[in-house]
Amino acid sequence: MTNSAKKVVVTGAAGNIAYSLLWRLAAGDVYGKDQPIKLTLLEVPEAVKATEGVAMELNDSAFPLVRSIEITDDATSAFDGASMAFLVGAQPRGKGMERSDLLSANGKIFVPQGQAINAGAADDIRVLVVGNPANTNALIAQQSAPDVPAERFTAMMRLDHNRALSQLAEKIGCSTPDIENVVVWGNHSSTQFPDISCATVDGKPVTELVDRSWYLDEFIPRVAKRGGEIIQVRGKSSAASAASAAIDHMRDWVQGTERWITAALPSDGSYGIEKGLVYGQPVVARDGKFELVEGLELTDFQRERIAASVAELQEERAAVADLL
Ligand code: NAD
Ligand code: LMR
User: For this protein, what reaction is catalysed (predicted)?
Assistant: First the structure.
């Protein structure tokens, strides 16, 4: 028997990230090869025509799992009955900007989208905010959807996590799946804390495989500033790697994983993170839910680094108080 199709919404569907994301999604990389999907592409009115072109190409790809493709500029109808939402649509930063510089332009996008999710999304709705500044935009969407369980709103820190794995694998000379128990705490910004305190390769602590000076002076800033480095070198913000990380995040959320991954979730107050802030934390995924890795003993160094993103997210929240 065939499963009934799930409605999946992608916002910013005419943009760069969506142009990679939609093909992975349509191929079944999130729900698996037995789950048909109905795609809804939400864009601003000026980009509807370009979105029609994207839909034409999706059709031309003849994906067996795609039951329908709907294009709209209306958030209420887009999210009605949705089981999954990738909130990608937002301006990207250019050279020399911080992601928080986007807050005044992008923050307001997430109020009507959160309200529309509140009004009509399916009971199993899962939301991933990709548009920057992702953590605070996710907070805005979540606060605009008071009837939806808060933990259904997440922000993307998986790209930071994947960047950390790849930098470590290159340094150590191993493959990324060999590395376990890495996390990137915090904000998707330069205050984030890529943390190798618990990381292992074949059971060996990573802290014994790399120099502390490399860890502090090269690895942490490299991972934290990788988005800016991509913009410098590529001339545009990351797109295919962001799409790939979004797929990883949603796939693991739906299908589960016992490996540590990083997801930005509303904090439950653990680890000195103010309750409610959408904060990158170590999780596994079981029974369709992210579960925080509990019981870690933090050093003073870890606590200080974690506190830096808490303070920054509190400032971002204050800057959008009128939207909350
Ligand atoms: P892009 O400019 O190529 O595409 C953005 C699209 O969003 C445009 O087509 C635009 O019309 C659309 N859009 C704007 N407002 C919208 C709205 N209210 N509803 C629906 N669509 C809307 O940008 P991109 O490269 O695809 O990046 C999108 C966002 O993702 C940016 O904010 C970027 O900074 C962010 N990003 C986040 C991460 C992360 O790790 N969290 C990684 C990469 C990029
Ligand atoms: C990234 O990390 O690549 C994205 O958030 C884009 C950016 O502005 O850095």
Answer: (S)-malate + NAD(+) = oxaloacetate + NADH + H(+)
Question: What sign does the dihedral 196-199-201-205 (CA atoms) show?
Answer: positive
Concatenated DSSP letters of 259-291: EEEEEEEE--SGGGPPTT-EEEEEEEEETTEEE
Of residues 241, 209, 215, the one with CA closest to residue 226: 241
Within 94-209, where are the H helices?
A: 103-106, 110-120, 134-143, 158-172
Q: Is the CB of 20 under 6 A from ligand 1?
A: no
Is 212 annotated as ligand-binding? Answer: no
Sequence-separated (6 or more) residues with CB below 8 Å from residue 173: none
Q: Which value, in Å, is the radius of gyration of the alpha carbons in the chain?
A: 19
| SS3 (DSSP) at 235 | coil
The helix/strand/coil state of 314 is helix
Give 14's contacts (C-beta < 8 A, 6+ positions apart). Answer: 41, 43, 47, 50, 51, 53, 54
Determine if ligand 2 sits within 6 Å of the CB of residue 159: yes
Ligand 1 centroid to 92 CA: how many Å?
A: 6
Are 10 and 88 within 8 A, CB to CB?
A: yes
Q: Are 86 and 128 in contact (CB under 8 A)?
A: yes
Q: What is the pLDDT along the chain (324 residues), one digit of tens a residue?
A: 468 999 999 999 999 999 999 999 999 999 999 999 999 999 999 999 999 999 999 999 999 999 999 999 999 999 999 999 999 999 998 778 888 888 989 999 999 999 999 999 999 999 999 999 999 999 999 999 999 999 999 999 999 999 999 999 999 999 999 999 999 999 999 999 999 999 999 999 999 999 999 999 999 999 999 999 999 999 999 999 999 999 999 999 999 999 999 999 999 999 999 999 999 999 999 999 999 999 999 999 999 999 999 999 999 999 999 999
User: Is there an atom of ligand 1 within 6 Å of 47 CB?
Assistant: yes
